[in-house]
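Progress report, Aim 2. The chain analyzed during this reporting quarter is listed below.
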Amino acid sequence: MGASASFLASRFPAPLLAGALILLTAPGPSAAERHSANRAEATTIHILGEFNGWDTSLWTTDPGMTHVGNTWVGNFSVTPWFVAQGYQQFKLVTDRAWDLPPDYCLCPDRLNEYTTLSGPLCLVPYGLNAQMYADLPGRYEMVLDETLMRYSARLIEPFTAAITGLVRFNTAFMPLPAAEVLVSASGTTLTLARAFSDPVTGAFRVEGLDGGSYDLTVSATSYLPRIVTGVGVAAGGTTNAGVIALDRGCTSAWTAIQVVGDFNGWNTAVPSMTQINACQWEQAVHVVAGCYYMKFRTNNVWGNDYGTCAVQDPGCGVPLSGSVCVVNGENALGKINFPVTEDYLFRLDEAQNTYSIQPLATPAARGTWGSLKVRYR
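Predicted structure tokens for the chain:
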């Protein structure tokens, strides 16, 4: 079992591995037996996966794989975004419906037979996603052999088109950030590729694209995002999208942010902070003097909260103002020293990734973003 576990850990991600191990610990019928029991003559088979957004509209807009004797042949594309993930999940969906009749899925009892672009498939209702490891962007051909119950894929057309451009920041603030450039097919939201601009020159280059029309979403911390639509590029060619200017500003990523911590028992029922402007939030909270951990909890759920950018400090040495980072885990702010029992004004600035906490009795807490002293005292 040790060798099998080592193979699974090296090839399959934890969520999929967990599901596979559950099935392996309770051996059922063999792949051939399941095939015989579940076999139904499919009239259509479609290749659906992460690389095409599991797009079920293809059931009606695309004829699917071509049936030739005991084999089915079809094409699919893998773009740079999904190459960067390291592996791609997919299923071969029969008769334009999930699971019933059964789809061609992962065979958990034959994991040692998988290679980067080939392996067994089993007809299983509600089965696990199969995986492959396409390492180059391009168009691929997939062949399903129903006699052998195996698939194989091969690269038939590399994607070599590119989009270049320059990002300019309309600001005197320095230093300038690197802008993120996300690429999607025009009129769609599925990300196909990503690049970052050079923080010194502003230049960016997105490679590994097919010929077509694309939309670019350009964003950077503390700047308003900009969408450039309809950037056309010929197969194998390069298109310069020109200069893309970003204005300083911010659009909040959240609809609610809560102040939670040791001082209020990590109470997730507390009201949201008040959004003073696009990316600035504030809230008055009564705190008993002491040292506490805390977070700015987003959208009323745990995960992607504002916490410390460094290691937690159990020694009560974290100041009442500083930087915050979006974290998903234990990285709470703190411990923060609250010197007196008082109503404190908590402020969060998403644009600057900073926080500040001040006693409402101090003049500095009274006169900037909002009028919380009037509302809370």
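The chain has three domains: 2-158, 161-247, 257-376. Residues 1-39, 369-377 have pLDDT under 50 and may be disordered. These observations will guide the mutagenesis work planned for the next reporting period.
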